[in-house]
Design goal:
This protein is α+β, with helices and mostly antiparallel strands. It folds into four domains: 183 residues, Multidrug efflux transporter AcrB transmembrane fold (Up-down Bundle); 88 residues, Multidrug efflux transporter AcrB pore domain (Alpha-Beta Plaits), CATH 3.30.70.1430; 99 residues, Alpha-Beta Plaits (2-Layer Sandwich); 84 residues, Multidrug efflux transporter AcrB TolC docking domain, DN and DC subdomains (2-Layer Sandwich), CATH 3.30.2090.10. Helix content is 52%, strand content 18%. The protein has 17 helices and 15 strands. Strands 5, 6, 13, 14 and 15 form a five-stranded antiparallel β-sheet that branches. Strands 2-3-1-4 form a four-stranded antiparallel β-sheet, covered by helices on one side. A two-stranded antiparallel sheet has the order 7-12. A hairpin with a 4-residue loop joins strand 8 and strand 9. It starts with a helix and ends with a helix. The mean pLDDT is 81.
């Protein structure tokens, strides 16, 4: 093949390019985004409706049927599944994978809006959201301790702001925090003395807590906007409200009640070792490096922790970067062990130089594959790592065949450049055919439909790039290195006899 001969004639260029590829590959290995699962678009949309006290049967008849009439005509809809429980109804819509999920989300919202007029009056506003597995939390930080609730929330909010400022963090959501409210405690005896009722007081507060529309005022000399303060912003605003005129005296809210800041009643609770706790769910940006991102999160926590009030403990209950690090360590260990075993096995039959050249095929093919994966925007994830580990035993076959044939020609007295050129050219098609048959087993996975196919496509793609890299190593790089580092052969009857005995099965 002319390409093989051309590479041998330009050995310095080939070796320079190979060195460059190795350096770029190592840099890519360090910088490529790493995550547990591939970033794939799951074509699911979730619709939920809450109606206090409604039975599952009534939810199906009064809510689901109305929504179904609108939703079943959506373009690209594959399946619609509903779940009803007391006080709640949810609908999961699955679309075909080639559907534009953003457009589908808009269409679902439009259909739900069209159906709202047919829903029961007491039903709460329907919620529509996309289900995106790439935006699931990658770390959960727990704050707990003996500190009071307000201190715990203050620390959580400060930490939330700091974490969301990190470039790799999309969102840090606080869970377990109760909404702050103004609690007004009315003295019933005083209320009765002034002839007031709870409903009158509630109506009074509501009437004084409204956004009042205003317009511009034209004075003739110019126009300026008029602002009408109408919203209650603090507890003193409530307590200073006039309640009633009693003779020549104006009765204020503070005359019959006291106010304080409090929290809504708990709908759920979080505890760690019996202590109150709040959690922050960390979501990373799509395409960011999960290991670097979560290391930055841990650094931020360590920086601000000394400034927290006493009695607040921090812990991590979920950290996906640990799993990624373990998988990467497994990959590196597999590559290292495989390379050493190959070199040891080849060393016994082909010698030190041959085992070294064959051993280069594994890291060389891996790094070439990583460069292509990174260029195409893919990440280092569980499927890619599994594919790389799976391919370890397939990468050295071609290099061993070429090296063994070259050693035979050297034993026959051929020059090193001639020996490696003949070995690569004569073994090229058998090696290509062997690689093609291996790929033929996995390539049908590219046509696997649905979400599973989107998830599994990384397996055949990674094998394709890795085995293609092994072909380049076996047919171009290894012969070039052999032609440069090797020695010219001389007729060696003993070596030829050993090779012929091995070919005939006489070891």
């Amino acid at each position: 093949m002319s390409l093989i001969q051309a590479s041998l004639n330009r050995s310095r260029t080939v070796l320079m390019l190979f060195t460059l590829v190795m350096l770029v590959g190592i840099a890519t290995l360090i910088s490529i985004p790493k995550e547990s699962n591939p970033d794939i678009t799951v074509p699911f949309v979730y619709v939920s409706v809450t109606h206090d006290g409604i039975s599952p049967e009534d939810a199906d008849a009064l809510i689901y049927k109305q929504l179904e009439k609108e939703l079943r005509g959506l373009d690209g809809l594959k399946e619609m599944v509903s779940t009803a429980s007391t006080g709640h109804l949810s609908i999961t819509l699955e679309f075909y994978t080639d559907t534009d999920i953003d457009q589908a989300l808009l269409d679902v919202r439009q259909k739900v809006d069209d159906a709202k007029g047919e829903l029961p009056e007491d039903s709460k506003e329907p919620r529509v959201k996309e289900i995106n597995v790439a935006l699931f939390p990658v770390m959960v930080v727990t704050l707990s301790g003996e500190a009071d609730e307000s201190s715990l929330y203050a620390v959580a909010e400060d930490l939330q702001d700091r974490l969301e400022a990190l470039p790799g963090v999309l969102e840090a959501t606080i869970q377990g925090k109760r909404e702050e409210i103004a609690e007004i405690i009315v003295d019933p005896a005083r209320m009765d003395n002034y002839g007031l009722s709870f409903s009158e007081l509630a109506q009074l507060v509501g009437n004084n807590n409204k956004l009042v529309a205003s317009e511009d005022l034209d004075t003739g000399a110019g126009r300026f906007s008029v602002k009408v303060p109408g919203l209650i912003e603090s507890i003193p605003d409530i307590l200073k409200l006039p309640v009633k005129v009693d003779g020549d005296r104006v009765v204020l809210f503070e005359d019959i009640a006291v106010g304080r800041l409090s929290y809504k009643d708990r709908q759920n609770s979080a505890r760690v070792n019996g202590k109150n706790a709040v959690t922050l769910e960390i979501k990373k940006r799509i395409g960011s490096n999960i290991i670097e991102t979560l290391d930055d999160v841990k650094n931020i926590i360590n920086e601000v922790k000394p400034f927290w009030p006493d009695g607040i403990d921090v812990g991590v209950t979920h950290d996906e970067s640990r799993q990624i690090k373990e998988m990467l360590n497994d990959l590196f260990n597999n590559v290292l062990v495989a390379t050493l075993l190959v070199m040891i096995l080849v060393l016994g039959s082909l010698g030190i130089k041959s085992s070294f050249m064959v051993g280069l095929a594994i890291p060389g093919a891996f790094l070439m594959a990583l460069i292509v994966l990174s260029t195409m925007g893919y990440t280092m994830n569980m499927v890619v790592l599994f594919s790389l580990i799976l391919s370890v035993g397939m990468l050295v076959d071609g290099a061993i065949v070429v090296t063994e044939y070259a050693d035979r020609r050297l034993a026959e007295g051929a020059k090193k450049r001639v020996a490696y050129a003949e070995a690569a050219q004569r073994m090229a098609w058998p090696i290509i055919a062997s690689t093609a048959t291996t790929l033929a087993v996995f390539l049908p996975l590219l046509f696997w439909p649905g979400t599973t196919g989107d998830f599994m496509k990384f397996l055949p793609l990674t094998l394709l790039y890795t085995l293609t890299g092994s072909l380049i190593m076996a047919l171009i790089v290894v012969p070039t290195i052999g032609a440069v580092m090797g020695k010219d052969g001389h007729h060696n009857p003993q070596a030829l006899a050993t090779i012929e005995a091995a070919e005939q099965g006489r070891f």
